[in-house]
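Researcher: Quick sanity check before group meeting.
Model: Go ahead. Protein one:
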Amino acid sequence: MALTGELSLDFTTSANLNPDELMSAQEHHLKTGGGDQYFESTKKLTTIDPEALVLFRNLKLRRQYRFILYTLTEDQLKMEHTGPPDANLSDLLSVLPESECRYAIYDHDLTTSDGRKTSKLYFISWLPTNAHPSMKMQYTHTKAMIRNSFDGCYDVNGTSVEEIQRGIETNMSLGDAEEEDNSEFEDD
C-alpha cells in the first residue's frame, strides 16, 4: 500500500524558540503557587553515605539522637538534621519541609500496658502532597534499597503530619497487642 501526496510536519524544538516562547511553552507547577520548579529525576541513588549508617547505629544502639532526617543529594543518601535525645515527635515534625520529600528515623519511647518502658524505631517516608511528582517518584523508587540498610524499624508513610502521628499511634497499639498474643505464659 503506497501513500501519495505530501506530508508536512512542523516540529518545534526548544532550539527554535526564543526565550519568551520557551517560557510560555513550559507547564507551571500548580502545587508551588505557579512557580516553575525543576527536579532532575535521571539521577539514581548508588550509595548511602557511610556517615548516615554510623548515625543510624548510634541512634539504634546508643540512643545518641531522637531522630535523624535524611535527604537524597546527587547520588547519595545523606544526613540533613539530627534531633537531641530529649526531642520528641513534634520536634521531628517541625523540621520536615512542606514541599520536599525526606526519610527519617525516629526513636519513640513508650510504656507498655504492663508498665515496662521501651522504645520503637520508625522508618518514616515523608512524601507531602505538594512535593514535585518527580521527587516523589525518586524517593519511592529508592526506598527499598534504603530500607534494607535500616533494619529493625517499623514503616510509616506520610503525606501529612496527621498521617505520621496516626501511623506511629497505630503501630504502638499493634505492638502491644502482638506482645500479648504471642505470650507463651498464661496467667493463673
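Researcher: Fine. The other one?
Model: Protein two, sequence then structure:
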Amino acid sequence: MTEATDHARLAVSAALDQVKAERAALEKAVAALSRASQRPDGRRAGVNGSAPPRRPTLPRKRRRRPSEETKGALLAVIAAHPGLTLSAIARESGISYTYARKLTLELAADGRARRSGDGWHAAANA
C-alpha cells in the first residue's frame, strides 16, 4: 500500500505544482493590468482603464461688440419703415431676431430709436 500512497502523493504534489505555477502567472497578469490602468500622470484610469486623456482647454472666443455700421444699417431699416415689429426688422435687415432685438434695445438706450405701440421708430434727433 505504500507504493500506491507514494504514487498518489506524487500525483497530488505534481498537481499542486501546476496550481502554484498558474497562480504565479495570474498574479503577474494582475500586476501588469494594474500598471496598465495607471495613466502617465500617475492617477488611476476609469473602471475599464480606457478613460481618454483630457484635452487641453482652448481659450474661449471673445465676442465682439456690434459695430456702429451694423447698428447704423439697422437704424436705416427702422427709419425707412417706421412702425416695424422686431420680427420684421430682423427679416428686412437679414439678421436673427435675437440679434435685432439686442441691437434695437441698444439703439433705444442710446436714444436713437424708440418703441411706439407694437412698432419701432427712429428717434427724431437720430
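Researcher: One line on it for the slide.
Model: The longest helix spans residues 2-36.
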